[in-house]
Design a protein that fits this description.
elongated; 40 strands; 20 helices; 8-stranded mixed β-sheet; 5-stranded antiparallel β-sheet; alpha+beta; about 25% strand
Amino acid sequence: MLVPMTLLRSFCDPQLTTAELAARLTMTGTKDERVFHVGVTEPDGFVVGHVLDVAPHPDADRLRVCTVDVGAGVPATIVCGAPNVAAGQTVAVARPGAVLPDGRKLKAAKLRGILSEGMILSETELAVGSDHDGIMVLDPPSADGSVVSPQSAGLCAGMSLAEAIELSSDVIEFEITPNRVDCLGVYGIAREVHASTGATLQPPPWVEDPGTTEGDAGGAEVVVEAAELCRRFMVRAFDGIRIGQSPAWLKARLLWAGMRPISNVVDITNYVMLLTGQPLHAFDFDRVAGRRLVVRRAADGELVETLDGETRTLDTEIVVICDADGPTSIAGIMGGARTEVAPNTTRVLLEAATWNGANIQRSSTRLGLRSEASGRYEKGLEPEVAADGLAYATRLLIEICGARALPGTIDVGGPGPDPAVIRLRPARVAGLLGKAIDSDRCAEILTALDFAVTPAPAVDESGVLEPTGALDLDVTVPYFRRADVTREVDLIEEVARIDGVDRLPATLPPRNGAAGRLTHAQRARRRAEDVLVGRGLDEIVGWSFTDPGLLDRLRLPERHPMRRTVRIANPLSEALSLMRPTVLGSLLDVARHNVARGAASVQIFESGTVYREHGADGPGAATATKVTGSPADEHHALAALLTGPFGGRSWRGGGHPPAADFFTAKGLLAAVLDTLRVDWAVASAGWSFLHPGRSANVLLGDRRIGFLGEVHPLVADAWDLERTAVFSINLDVVLAAAPPVISYGGLSDYPAVLQDLSVVLADDVSADRVLAVVRANGGRELVGVDVFDVYRGDQVGPGRFSLTLHLEFRAADRTLTDAEVADRRSSITKALAGELGGELRA
């Protein structure tokens, strides 16, 4: 919401700079998004001028030579191209040296041979209006339509233009939270300034209503058929209206607040909305067929032409305001073209209503039509605000448009419920905030916010009067805070934010004997993530939503479990219409983003939830969590991606780190799973998005919990990546298998016996099988076995390879003898020969 400071300070001026005021309000919860300046930056050089004479330019048909009294003793000659310039006008003049709002510095210059000593300005050149077809004339019209003389209006030639009109203003853009609909009006912001600074607050301009409640409102009639969607509908009739331009101050304030000035009647409705928060709509009374307005639900497929010239198709959830000829406007969103106020309008029917906020939000979204009015209605205005807006608009129509308010106000629905009274206990304030704030200070704050406060004897929790004579407060909630303040804790929040949240002490919440700690799963998950961070990977956080096209880019077959996705009922866009079935998509997206911007290598991981249709098979589906009321199975996945060089430079690698591959990813996976102390294995498998010869399933026992491998070249190419390695596991399954307590054994004092063993095997024998046989036959003294060399060549023959193992034997209570080690080694070699057909290599 854009708030011009000239308008805000007219109701409450705390004598703070705009930046200081914005910071103060932010600390009370009314957050500023930005502060900027509009209009003239320096008023010097801008003066009031009086046009003495206008003559045609001798060498230009569209230019005129004006003699203008600018108070300098000698009239100035100004060449002007505006068609409406005339002798006798009081105008805005920029003298040479003046800096215009767009940054141009004005100089005296010859125009077709005649020296122009300044510029007669239009509204757009001053940034105080939207009219650029002619100059801005300062002679103000009176209520009866005659022109007031400049002298009687206090304008004289040569006076500073800043004394005649508002030339500029600072503007604060506020982010208004949905619960603070009262702050969608500038007067609500002024109330916040008053409470937080103590500056004087002017009375609201709607206190005195020049309209009447008795009468037939010019013979108008209102019928509300959709009462559940229209809490209040008020109408007042006016005649004698003269449509024209609004005063300069009104147009400037609207423009600075982001609204385009149109005509005096329309501008008044927008200005009242800006000030009170209550949208209004003006009908041309003579165009309302039958003088009767009916509020009803639209018929399915019914059409209405709105003020923007578009014809919109409605449904039965949309509320319309109709006359005898059909819909005239879409309730709470936009008026209709058929009854809009026109230049020849003389009678106006002014409407102020209270609509159902959820219905307005739904209708606005359905039509793709948002307006200043819908943005306010959808947050839930109270019925009393409609009366405030109608009263102030009546006053402005009389003062600016010369209108006469016809007797009577139609009011269907009336005001809202009686105000709530909430007991506020200072003892409870101290208990929640950790700081005592006495009754007087609480009453001062709440009174400044327009709550009514009455002292009441304090009672304890059992209802017994406190013997100390302390006072509680009975607080009456104003109508404009009815939906926001409903409990004692809400009042305490009001006290805290105005007294200063930054002044509250740092305290611990009451524990009541409870001690907070992480669960086993939370601690284990953090350990797993820390392992990857410690090895140089960066964590990313991707969207939980994904693009349906992801499944095709991953080359998933039609019946693949990952294709059993969960579709979002109301997606932000088609590109975010599915709940992600894997985190691989977000990893690939981030990798492409970084590689495209010059990153030579990317090492990232993500720890997050993935979603499958309920009952879908796939890695970890057996332990997925069914969300109540949801069609989705969820589990927490941990996945990593590496592309490009990984690790440090080494003299052994020619000065370059090696490129990440299958074994790099497997090493990281091993670090994670070994840290969590789970028994795991890998087995060859085919995944459509992984390289057919460099991929594997990750197993926990006989359960598949994820995948490991290099991304298929076609998939990598779809993301503009080179060789890329990944792994992904169902972390929920892993954490369930991880021991809650890790046991540690003592280190042996006795030396180890180290031996190497080379065995020749057939090509179809995996290293995993070899290691399993060695561990099973090495006895408890075999404490370590590693593969450190693989050989294929003429020395072992075709179809065979040599695997060299490093064996470590150690006993906890003695030094092993050569005979003991030889016995274990013999058992190993016999088992390798008998179970795997292995031959000991000399």
